[in-house]
Input
Amino acid sequence: MALAHLVYPGAMHTRFHHSMGAYHLMSCALQELQGKGVHISREEEVAAKMAILLHDIGHGPYSHALEKDIVEGVSHEAIGRWLMEDLNQQMKGALSLTLDIFNDRYHKKFLHQLVSSQLDVDRMDYLNRDSFYTGVSEGVIGYDRIIKMLTVHNGELMVEEKGIYSIEKFIVARRLMYWQVYLHKTVLSAENMLVKILCRAKELALKGVSLFASPALQYFLYHTVTANNFEQDPATLRQFCLLDDYDIMGAVKVWAGHEDKVLSLLCKWLINRKLFKCVLSNEVFSGDAVALLKEQARQQWGVKETELDYFVFTGTASLRAYNIADEKINILFKDGTVKDISSIDNALISHTLAIPVKKFYICHPKI
Output
């Protein structure tokens, strides 16, 4: 959960916990479907379980917070695929079916939908798990009820008619968790500060400035790494696997004493929890407002004009709780008809939760 523990101190669980939980829910879902007469071979069962166990293997330090900053323009899904392909070679093809399911190439589409869709066991686990550890009860969902309502129709994963309200609760819970936890303004502030720290460190490193870093972090600071590096050089993948939260925070603690004012200030503030003020708005912040805050920062901390973007910056936080253009959640009615949950008469989803919500924010030091 990256730096969410700065707001919710209990949120210290790891991605390993989540992967094991998702694996358990996948086992329950497969057992439920088999009990309803859906044919799933032993090989398919093992492959689907492996797919969910490995679905987040491509995540780097601090999860989504640094996803596109350690390696620019490369998603954790892509890194996960490369890691799984590398493992598959080491295991002499034992993960071939797992890769087909993970990449949605297998003819039994419902197996991929259990791994990745708008109603997958990944979301079922992280909503309940994150809700439990943060203490935000709005995220609690009845995953056991949802799993019992799952079925397969024409090769696709669907929900039985009597499970409609459980699915609506699931989508509402996801929306509330995003705005109360994942996109909480203090979490946004802390995670953006961490991003700025890494950007400054990379800027200095590429200019040849000496920085303390573990060997793995040093590799990514002093090299411009792209997707081609991962695909053509196995060493890049190995270095990425050596990175974790400790590499980043260990470096941040040392950089707090660095001679570069921008880097040291940002690191000191993050370590001492002197976080940037983060203001959310429904409107875009004016250029005058940004310029005023930059001038105040320049006068108070004596930083150069070219460095002010590290101290005052804007961004957007957006969420669509249910995306009708994405993999739909289909409801199977008793008469055999199939409807997307957003098209059901008087459905909560069609009225509100399918509408994207976008908020603008500005972050700056407290003056």
